[in-house]
Amino acid sequence: VFAENHQPARMTDILTVAIEALTAQDICDRQMGSKVLDRAMGDPASWLTDVPKLMRYIHKNMECVSTEPARHSLASLLLLLTERCPREVVRSLLEISPTCDSAALAMWEVMISMPGTLWSVLTELHSVLQDLRLRKVFSCATEDACICLLALLLRTDFASEKFAALYKGQSVLSHPMRAMLSLVLESLITLSEAPGMRFTMRKLCFLQARKILVLLPDIMDAVQYASSDVKRKALVVCRNMMGHLGREEASPITLQLAESLLRLFDDGSGAIQPQLRLWPTAPVVGIRP
Predict the structure, then answer these.
(1) pLDDT at position 64, please?
(2) Among 51-60, 201-210, 279-288, which stretch is predicted with the lowest mean pLDDT?
(3) 169 partner at 20 to 30 Å CA-CA among 77, 142, 225, 270?
(4) Cα(129)–Cα(132) distance, rounded to whole angstroms?
């Protein structure tokens, strides 16, 4: 048992050492760090008492972990914390980096990479926004509005028509901050790739799917001058949504986005070009293969 003969506070200290070991140059140190984290995650009830401290160490080391196995271990720990303690995780990260620095952005993207944790994170962020004492979550009101938008997107009791009217009155994705645009896209990727979405698409057409489609024109315009990685995410969202829709439904939407899509496909980036081979409706608008 991982926590045998150790108090929770002591186990937390061991985990912080393991997190830092993931950044070591020596492969044996990194492997030991991963083994300690993997073993701990099998028995979280024995040590999960100081979430803020663990979040600070994850944030401190997030960008220093360079190998895939180590990144996987750190991401798994962060997802476990988010699943078990979403309130503490979200509020801790907001306190650590209210302006969402690059390490925090990487953490947010891990936290919203699974459907279950996406829902928990957005629900908690929306809850924070309702607290008058903590009204300002990110660095500006537009970014806060994006969070509200995503929270409403996930609500099945909020009609797509009402969602569309609300969004058109704000258009908060027309000029979003870089970090928030990336988080919005990561959220939409998670939602559009959720298991069973294709099977339930007929129901989702009037719920999340229709809401996502409302956002696509502004998203595609907003990413024109973004980084290649953000452009890639936008194309993944579009590809996923077009793939879920039938050709008859997808064709007019693709035509509406044709100009923006062509500009992205002409990007020439190695991160963008692979999306061409996966685009399900390219023949509809004559996009080059």
Answers:
(1) 96
(2) 279-288
(3) 225
(4) 7
For 122-169, how does the pLDDT look when each residue is reduced to its tens digit (9 = 90+)?
888 878 777 645 555 555 555 667 777 787 777 777 777 888 888 777
Closest CA to 174 of 214, 137, 217: 217
Q: Could you please report the per-residue DSSP string of 149-213? A: HHHHHH-TTS-HHHHHHHHHHH-TTSS--HHHHHHHHHHHHHHHT-TTTTTTHHHHTTTHHHHHH
At position 177, the amino acid (one-letter code) is M
The whole-angstrom separation of Cα 231 and Cα 265 is 10
Is-contact 229 185, C-beta < 8 A? Answer: no
Query: Cβ(251)–Cβ(281) under 8 Å?
Result: yes
Q: What backbone torsions phi and psi does residue 198 show, to the nearest 5 degrees?
A: -60, -40
> How far apart are alpha carbons 3 and 41 in whole angstroms?
11
- Whether 250 has a pLDDT exceeding 90, the answer reads no
Lowest mean pLDDT among 3-12, 193-202, 210-219, 220-229: 193-202
Q: What is residue 48's three-state secondary structure?
A: coil
Q: Which residues contact 109 (CB under 8 A, 6 or more apart)?
A: 182, 183, 186
- Output the CA–CA distances (angstroms, integers) from residue 247 to 41, 133, 242, 280, in the order listed: 44, 48, 8, 9
d(CA 82, CA 112): 9
Q: Is 99 exposed, middle or buried (CB count within 10 Å of its CB: 0-12, 13-18, 19+)?
A: exposed
